[in-house]
Amino acid sequence: MVLLSTSPFPQKYDRKAELTAFDEAKTGVKGLVEAGITEVPRIFHMPSPQNLNSNQESHSKLCPPTIDLEGIHEDPIKRKEVIKQVKDAFETWGCFQMVNHGIPLSILEEMMEGVKRFHEDDVEVRKQWYKRNGGGKRRVVYNTNFDLYTAPMANWRDTFYVTMAPNPPQPDELPPQCRDILLVYSSQMMKLSSCMFELISEALGLDPNHLGDMGCAEGLAVLGHYYPSCPQPELTLGTSPHSDTSLITILLQDHVGALQTLYQNQWTDIPPIPGALVVNAGDILQLITNDQFISAEHKVLAKKVGPRISVASNISTGLVETGKIFEPIKELLSEDNPAKYRGTTVTEYVNYYRKKGLDGISSLLHFKI
């Protein structure tokens, strides 16, 4: 068991040493819970004590729109309605929930079970997958917080991350606890993301294939998040406020809740809907649409109820070097609406984002003209 400081005012607090000790234990937040801790270690504490209570509350009764995709391939009138709903949602919320998306409930449930099996396997088995950074032969990265050493606070969350496209791993490179369902789920996500980019293209007034032809639907990274029950949820967060580096993120969340998005400067719940998927616009989508569509700033609360399971599918090539330059779409620009961002590769964007960590400042600012 790694001894971590829990007192809010310890006489001596060497944050780097405690982060290193936690990281080198390779057991994650789940390991702390398994060891029976009753207080949240200081490395997880929110840096502003005055925000502890306000940070946990949702101040709005509003919630993002839910869009029903049933019939969009057969009924042109329904498709036109959905395209308008997608446009409105991405211009105002940056996110929405979707139902009747075509992925069977059994696949969604098995994907969440697969994530749970991985994170709840024997600690010595989990340790074998633990890794701080990507690269090398290992295709799966499992750890607590990609920005553990750079962010102001550690988040109460363990994650495994695997790039499933454009260069898919071999089946034997995937964890056996979720290998089969990862392959099935990823195939379903690739189909769904292609459909989404057609709708988004049309919502922008472009040809349905425009974003697909740009290569927007080529990449997929699947993140299996595990949020253990937290003994002092008022002191920390499951995930700090951030927007995603992706073009879009398609999120599957379980019944626990705790996901919130920022809307009109108020934190607003995204309540779980059985069988629904949450779609977040990411930073790259905001960049190429020149701010017409906004990336959703969101966070996850820590809770005593747990574990919470979620599966994020980042539709993005991430750190896979493709050389493709993403810049504001020329068809959306005019004399009155000039380009606001310089062109960038997804890899350059992600590298900047990861180096900076979740510090509450949008990475888009770095790419502004």
UniProtKB/TrEMBL annotation:
Entry-linked Gene3D superfamilies:
B-lactam Antibiotic, Isopenicillin N Synthase, Chain
Q: Which Pfam families did the record assign?
A: 2OG-FeII_Oxy (PF03171), DIOX_N (PF14226)
Query: Which keywords does the record carry?
Result: Dioxygenase, Iron, Metal-binding, Oxidoreductase, Vitamin C
**Molecular function terms from GO:** dioxygenase activity; L-ascorbic acid binding; metal ion binding; oxidoreductase activity, acting on paired donors, with incorporation or reduction of molecular oxygen
Give residue ranges for domain Fe2OG dioxygenase.
218-322
InterPro entries per record:
DIOX_N, IPNS-like_FE2OG_OXY, IPNS-like_sf, Oxoglu/Fe-dep_dioxygenase_dom
Q: Which family does it belong to?
A: Belongs to the iron/ascorbate-dependent oxidoreductase family.
PANTHER family membership: 1-AMINOCYCLOPROPANE-1-CARBOXYLATE OXIDASE HOMOLOG 1-LIKE, OXIDOREDUCTASE, 2OG-FE II OXYGENASE FAMILY PROTEIN
Report the protein name in the record.
Answer: Non-heme dioxygenase N-terminal domain-containing protein
Q: Which source organism does the UniProt entry give? A: Artemisia annua (Sweet wormwood)
The organism's taxonomic lineage, starting at the top: Eukaryota, Viridiplantae, Streptophyta, Embryophyta, Tracheophyta
